[in-house]
Write a structure and sequence with these properties.
Chain lengths: 261, 435
């Protein structure tokens, strides 16, 4: 089967009645790696959260389609089951629920009832993925994200990504707070998923991540919109020259979403 | 007084009841004395819950139960509490008021350990029982229910561990209220002599939905110098039973009493769990979980009183409230004058699953001494929508996500329950009550 297609069309999103996204258009196909870059406060996390269905974000206009199905009509769990995955910038901590129990529930949620993964197979797959990500095995028995360092949380997000194997992965600042070794390991995990059946949207405000995961397309967000798109060379120019030239080109003074819509 | 003051049973009845059981004279006179007191004593007054209208007087007092030859004869819902694989069990099964099954490993028997029903203990160890029965922990004249309990006591177990005996494997009681109307006036005594240690776990089970019954339970736990007692319980009385359960501990020098109580009754429940840290360096952890549902009203008072120097008391109460259930959690740490260097911590947390449920978390600290440390925390809240979002973003359904969060919330207490079979059973009961 060829990969999935995620189409984001004229997406407008508000938080507490303030408009944050003001018409985002993006299409991500299986096999493609897209990078969304932009300074802080330009709406990148809002885009990711709205696609996944975060309860605080309200879509006021536009559409999100996954293989032609209306994602915005789906509950959060249905979006995941349809093939979406979001590695969150700030994953929740859940006391009393072990990482391993949570992972097993997640995997089973993607399988038919009666076709649950066997415990043996699950442990084997989890161990392999944890080895691949250089993770301490004890983490599986610790409570989900509770007391995890920033880096451990990021690895845990990628562990989930690797085990769930979604059709479309959205990674929100997966590189923030990682030292160079951790960044390499995490990138290795993401690169392992590269195939025709996996499309990826990486959100970052550093070029650094893109040294390890080469994107096919690069988009720049400002003021709640995608203001420029290009190939990997765009990321390199941003690395060398910063964002000012884009602002000048577009006549933008303040790149963030701004207090007043 | 608002309750009908007429006692359900008369002097002649009590006297005859004692005779039928061939009880020692001291027991009979204690019963009669208590019966007289019951008439004039007030009902207990758990803080913030009015129990005066609850049914503590309508019940049947006597019911026999059949002896079983082998554990295989037990119904499945009792079997689940037992580690069936282990053939060297230390177990008492009480069926109504009869002992259906009893076993104690010969090794423990040789060491002088006693694990037996209260009636047998009164015959075989009368002096020992008398030494502890309503003496150091609970008094007969505390209130009307403690007096009634003494007068009408109809079951329970006696556990005694001699000096220096350290028991690894748990001792277990199962109290099976098979008859739908019979009252449970159980008396449990656990004594650990100096330098001994034990783990005890008990289960209360009934199935009465519409038939009314009463449970009026007193438990007295005594840890002598350097002794350590780990006490686990899963209370699972059905809706028709009104419960008053009084679990009390006394810890002497450097002794430890740890409680892990799964309070899963379906009827109105007033639970008191009080530990007196008498000795220097004594310690207690009092952990409890509960799930309230329907129109259930419950009051859980956990209290640790510090008398000894450098004594440590930790209270942790977790409750989940659904439908129209209403619960009060009082976590009380009291440090008496002279108990310097003591530490008292209370934590009460309630998770509300419906808008009609009510939960009240009251950590209370009463300090009569300067040189101490103390802390408390309380929260009453709903399931966090951001946590739900995180779990659901991995494909987990809303119901399953909520289930994970609830089990996670109760885990700090559930994981302390000593016997694996009982722990798993408690998880099942929680599952059944929440969904
Ligand atoms: N929960 C929130 N409540 C109110 N405003 C928010 C919230 N989250 C984000 N914002 C605002 O939305 C804008 C975009 O935020 P975000 O999408 O997180 O940016 P980025 O991920 O690009 O740094 C910012 O101006 C921020 O202040
Ligand atoms: Mg962000």
């Amino acid at each position: 089967m060829a990969g999935s297609i995620l189409e984001i069309k004229d997406l407008h999103v508000a938080i507490e009645d303030q408009e944050i996204l003001k018409g985002v258009n993006l299409t991500i196909k299986g096999g493609e790696f897209h990078a969304v870059m932009g300074p802080n406060g330009t709406g990148k996390s809002t885009l990711a959260s709205a696609i996944m269905g975060h309860p605080k974000y309200e879509v006021t206009k536009g559409s999100v389609l996954l293989d032609g199905e209306d994602v915005l009509e789906m509950e959060v769990d249905e979006r995941a089951q349809a093939g979406l995955f979001l590695a969150m910038q700030y994953p929740s901590e859940i006391s009393g629920v072990t990482t391993s129990d949570f992972l097993r529930s997640s995997i089973n949620a993607h399988r038919e009832e009666g076709d649950e993964i066997s415990l043996m197979k699950f442990i084997k797959e989890m161990d392999a993925a944890m080895d691949y990500l250089d993770m301490d095995k004890n983490m599986a028995q610790r409570y989900l994200n509770e007391g995890f360092s920033g880096g451990e949380k990021k690895r845990n997000e990628i562990l989930q990504l690797m085990m769930i194997k979604p059709a479309i992965g959205i990674l929100d600042e997966i590189d923030s707070g990682l030292d160079i070794d951790a960044l390499k390991v995490v990138s290795k995990g993401i690169n392992k998923l590269r195939s025709e059946s996996f499309g990826c949207l990486m959100i970052t405000h550093y070029q650094r991540l893109l040294d390890y995961i080469t994107p096919d397309y690069v988009h720049v967000m400002m003021q709640g919109r995608v203001v420029k798109s290009g190939g990997p060379e765009l990321a390199q120019r941003l690395e060398a020259e910063g964002y000012d030239w884009i602002k000048q080109e577009l006549g933008i003074e303040e790149e963030t979403v701004g207090q007043k819509a | 007084m608002t309750v009908d003051t007429k006692l359900p049973y008369e002097k002649d009845y009590v006297s005859k009841f004692s005779d039928e059981r061939n009880e020692p004279e001291w027991m009979k006179s204690l019963r009669l004395q208590a019966l007289e007191l019951a008439d004039s004593l007030p009902m207990p007054t758990p803080d913030k819950t009015n129990i005066t209208k609850w049914n503590f007087s309508q019940f049947k007092h006597k019911a026999e139960g059949q002896v079983i030859k082998s554990l295989d004869e037990l119904p499945d819902d009792i079997k689940v509490f037992i580690d069936m694989e282990n053939h060297d069990k230390n177990l008492v099964i009480q069926r109504n008021q009869s002992i259906a099954y009893k076993s104690l490993s010969s090794e423990l028997e040789k060491k002088g350990v006693i694990l037996t029903d209260i009636t047998t203990a009164l015959h075989e160890h009368s002096d020992l029982v008398q030494r502890y029965y309503m003496k150091d922990a609970v008094a007969i004249d505390e209130n009307r229910l403690s007096a009634l309990h003494t007068a009408l006591m109809n079951g329970g177990v006696f556990v005694y561990v001699p000096k220096g005996v350290v028991i690894e494997e748990p001792l277990q009681s199962i109290f099976w209220q098979e008859d739908n109307e019979v009252a449970t006036f159980n008396h449990v005594i656990v004594v650990a002599e100096e330098n001994s240690s034990l783990t005890y776990v008990e289960n209360y089970i009934s199935h009465n939905q519409d038939q009314q019954a009463v449970a009026n339970i007193v438990t007295e736990v005594i840890a002598h110098d350097n002794a350590s007692i780990s006490y686990g319980a899963v209370d699972n009385f059905a809706k028709g039973t009104t419960v008053y359960v009084n679990r009390r501990g006394v810890a002497y020098r450097n002794a430890t009493i740890d409680w892990a109580l799964g309070q899963m009754n379906d009827g109105h429940t007033a639970s008191e769990n009080i530990t007196h840290l008498i000795g220097d360096d004594s310690t207690s952890h009092a952990k409890t979980v509960t799930v309230g549902r329907g129109h259930q009203i419950q009051n859980f008072t956990a209290k640790i009183v510090h008398f000894g120097l450098a004594s440590e008391g930790y209270i942790l109460q977790h409750g989940v409230m659904k439908e129209s259930a209403s619960s009060v959690f009082n976590g009380i740490g009291k440090i008496e004058h002279g108990a310097s260097k003591s530490n008292a911590e209370q934590e009460s947390r309630v998770l509300m699953l419906s808008k009609d449920a009510r939960g009240d978390a009251n950590p209370i600290l009463l300090i009569d001494e300067d040189d101490v440390t103390a802390g408390h925390a309380a929260s009453v809240g709903r399931v966090d929508p951001i946590q739900m979002y995180y779990l659901m973003s991995r494909g987990i359904s809303k119901t399953e996500a909520e289930r994970l969060i609830i089990h996670g919330f109760l885990a700090p207490v559930v994981k302390e329950i000593p016997i694996k079979a009982v722990r798993e059973q408690l998880t099942q009961v929680i599952e059944g009550k929440v969904y």
